[in-house]
Amino acid sequence: MPGHRLEHTRPSYLLAIEQGCDYIEPDDVATKDGVLVVRHENEISNTTDVAHRPEFADRKVGKVVDGVHYVGWFTEDFTLAEIKTLRVRERLPQLRPHNIVLAHVEQILTFDEVLDIAAQASTDRDEPIGVYVETKHPTYFASIGLDLNDLLIADLERRRANQADAKITIQSMETANLKALRERTPLTLVQLMDRQGAPYDFVASGDSRTYRNLRKVPQLERIAEYADGIGPNKSQVIKRDVMGRLSGETKLVRRAHRLGMTVHIWTMRSENNFLPANLRQSRDKAAHGDAMGEYLAFFNAGVDGVFTDFTQTAVRAREVWLARQ
Question: Quick one: CA torsion of 259, 262, 267, 271, rounded to 10 degrees?
Fold first, then answer.
C-alpha cells in the first residue's frame, strides 16, 4: 500500500491485506551474499537512508544497469547484515509527503519475510493471500554472479512452496529468465511488458525485438508457450491521446485471452500526476483525481487484475463494477 505506507515494508503489506488485496507484490533484488531482498530497484539511495550513513560512504559507485548509468549505492555491494542496518524512506516524497514522517523506522525485508507475512495473514482465511513476485534486472545480476532464478527457486524449495497449489506468481520484464523458470517450477509465470523499450535480455543478445513487437499475435503466441499471463503497462490496454486523455482500447486483452493468458496491468495510482488528463481534478499533482473512473475503464476493457498503490480504492472500484454487470 505505497499510497499510505512506505513501499515494500511490513506496514504497507499489512495495510493492503487489511483493505482486501488478493496478492502482495515484492520486487526482488539480491545482496552481496546471495539473499533476495525487497526493493523497487537495486540502487537504494532514493529508498533508504544509506546516503546519510558515513560508514557506507565508500560504497557509492557508478554502475551501468540495463544500459543505464547510475551513481549511488547498490544492494549487491552489501551483505544482508549490512542491509538490515539501513532504514527505509519514501521514494516519491513530492507526491506523498504524508509518508515522509514514516522514515527511519522500517528495515528492508527479505523475500522470505514477505512470504512469512502472507502466510501469517492467510491463517483462518478461506482464500490465502498470494505473493506476486518480480525479479528485477535478472540479466544484470547474472552478469555479476548472482542468478535470481537460482536464489528464488532455492527459497521456494526450502519452504516447500515450489508447487502448483502455492498461491505464488512470478513475473519479469525480461523473457529468458521466465523461459528458464518454466522448466523449474509449476507456479504461474507472467511476462511483464512496458510501453516502450525492450526486454534487456533482448538488448544484451542483439535481438532487435521490442515490447511493441511482443504485443503482436505471433509474439504473444511465443509468450503463451512459457507464460500463463502478461502484465502490460496500462497504456498498452487503453491508449492515451496527444492530450494525455484515455482514448480507446487496444486489441491486447482480446489477443491474450484468445491464447488463454490472463492480463494484469500496472500500476494504478490515485494522484493526479499519474491519472489520464481527463480524470485529473486539479492542477495539484499530489492531490487525488477520479481514480474510480480509470479503474472502471480498465475493468470494462476486460483486464483480469490490476496492480495498485491504493488497495481500498481498487477494491471499491471492483465492487462497483461487479454490481453493474
Answer: 110
